Sequence to fold (87 residues):
Amino acid sequence: MVSRLLASQRRAEAAAPSLAQAAVFYHNWERRLDVAAGTAAGLFHMHSKGVVHRDLTSYNVLLDAGFSARVCDFNLSRVRAGCCVCV
Fold:
């Protein structure tokens, strides 16, 4: 019983920094706009290569430690007709 309580407390302590970061992010409009701009820049890059994401949601945008946006989950993406995607 004691070990369960200690494990639960450790999980709560480990989650505390991420909750604090989320609170800072939620109240900081400049940072939120930076995330939106980063997401738009990622989509612009994809579209310039002829790729359409087709499933952009908040769940498909990952944030790193510096809150830089990364677009992910390309399962539904398609290449536009007539476009050549060069890698």
